[in-house]
Structures are given as C-alpha cells and as structure tokens.
From TrEMBL:
GO terms for molecular function: ABC-type transporter activity. Pfam families: ABC2_membrane. The keyword Electron transport does not apply. One of its GO terms (biological process) is response to antibiotic. Belongs to the ABC-2 integral membrane protein family. It is found in: Cell membrane; Membrane. Residues 25-251 form the ABC transmembrane type-2 domain. Signal peptide: none annotated. It comes from Streptosporangium saharense. It is a multi-pass membrane protein. Its main location: membrane. Keywords: Antibiotic resistance, Cell membrane, Membrane, Transmembrane, Transmembrane helix, Transport. This is Transport permease protein. The chain crosses the membrane at residues 24-45, 57-81, 102-130, 136-158, 170-188, 226-244.
C-alpha cells in the first residue's frame, strides 16, 4: 500500500513538475515581488529604520523569505482549481491510483517551486550585501524551518484550491498571508510598535519564525524562538492537512 502510494505520487509529481518547467515564468514572478520589496526597503527606507544592526538587508531577509513562500503558494491553489475544473481529478479517481497521491504531488511541486524562488531571492540578497558566517548546521536548520513553513502554507492553499468557486477566489486567500509579515518583527523590532499591535506582533507565528531564522543567520542565541517556530509550523501543518483532506473527500466523493 505504501509502495503503491509512493509510486503514484512520484508519477503525478513528475506530471506537475513538467507543468512548472513549461511555465518557468511563474517561479520567476513569485520571486519578483519579494525582490522588489527587498530593494525598496533596503535602499529607500533602510536608512530611516533603526533596527540596532549594521546591515538592514541582514535584518530584513528572513521576513522576505517568508513573503516569498506566501506568494508562491497562490500558484498551488490555482493549479489545483484548474485541475479540478478540467476534470483531471475525476480521471485519476477512475484509475487505480492512491486517492491522496494527487494532492501530495501538488504539495511537493509547490515545495520544489518555492525552494527555487527562495534560492533566487537569496542570490539577490547576497548581491545586495547579505552576509552570514553561520555554520552549516545553522543553514540546514534555516532550510528545515523554511520547508516546514512551505508545507504548512501549501496545505492551507489546498483548501481554497478545492473549495473556491472562481480562480480569483482560489488565489486571493494568499493576500492576508503575504501581509502578515508586515505585522511582525520582519521589518522593524516589535518594541517600536504601539501597545495592541505589539501584543499581536509578538504572539503571531511569523515573529517567532523570523526571530529564529535571524538568530541562526547571525549566530545569536536562538532561545525558545526556534521551538515556538517549529510548534507553529507543525501545528499549522497538521491542522491544514486534516482540513484539506476532509475538503478533498467531500469534494471528490
């Protein structure tokens, strides 16, 4: 049964990845907005923002990476919606394939596409002066957190992808997720925010994730932020997966 599921997922993943390679512009488009945002904040606003660090791009990059992921998952919802409306799901259901393999193929495609977009953003950040002397273990930890965050948001994207009535509705859910880093420590320290906003910013998931990645890049003590970040990622992933699978069963039944 497991071998059957893995084999079906691998075949469907290959199909989804071929669609991505035929429209590389979607990956590039995903990276354009975060890169433009990074350029604007570093070169236009960076001189006026006091973060207590010498390099604003070093401070800013973790939040930009999360915005990149939030931008990329909109395409997952779009591709799911398109497959659903074109009858692809029904064709797969009539074949001897594992029921959840088609969803996992879309999710893993999202992971691959987002990792490529993240690599593009990272290269631009390096060109802008981002530097980190963090050891390999710290970089691997950052990659692990970004993968978990991507999977969590992608499973959220599956829900509107399956339940939306229009293609615009399938993609529009990502806008609040893109906006969430602005209400966190991604761009400025939360200590500079007014009371109610500061309270929200310090207790929402993006702040813990950004703080953990920033500490890993700068070789600072991570403290409890990394465990809170992992708890948020895993918690969102599990809840989103359960809701997505329930939506899938109701939609395909």
């Amino acid at each position: 049964m497991t071998r059957h599921f893995l084999g079906d997922t691998a075949v469907l993943l290959g199909r989804s990845l071929r669609h991505v390679t035929r429209s590389v512009d979607t990956v590039i488009t995903t990276a354009i907005m975060p890169v433009a945002m990074m350029l604007m904040f570093v070169y236009v606003f960076g001189g006026a923002i006091n973060t207590g660090t010498d390099s604003y791009v070093n401070y800013l990059l973790p939040g930009i990476l999360l915005i990149t992921i939030a931008s990329g998952i909109a395409y997952t919802a779009f591709r799911l919606f398109t497959d659903l409306k074109s009858g692809v799901f029904e064709r797969f259901q009539s074949m001897p394939t594992a029921r959840s393999a088609v969803l996992w193929a879309h999710v893993l495609t999202s992971l691959v596409a987002n990792l490529i977009s993240l690599a593009i953003v990272m290269l631009v950040a390096l060109a802008m002066g981002f530097r980190s002397s963090a050891p390999v273990t710290a970089w691997l930890s950052v990659v692990g957190i970004l993968i978990l965050f991507t999977l969590a948001l992608t499973w959220i994207a599956v829900i509107p992808g399956l339940s939306a009535k229009t293609v615009e509705g399938a993609s529009a859910f990502s806008y609040p997720l893109i906006f969430l880093p602005f209400l966190s420590s991604a761009f400025v320290p939360t200590a500079t925010m007014p009371g109610p906003l500061r309270l929200f910013a310090e207790h929402q998931p993006v702040t813990s994730i950004v703080n953990a990645i920033r500490a890993l890049f700068t070789e600072q003590p991570v403290g409890t932020d990394i465990w809170i970040a992992l708890a948020w990622c895993v918690g969102i992933l599990v809840v989103a997966y359960l809701f997505a699978m329930n939506t899938y069963r109701r939609r395909i039944a």
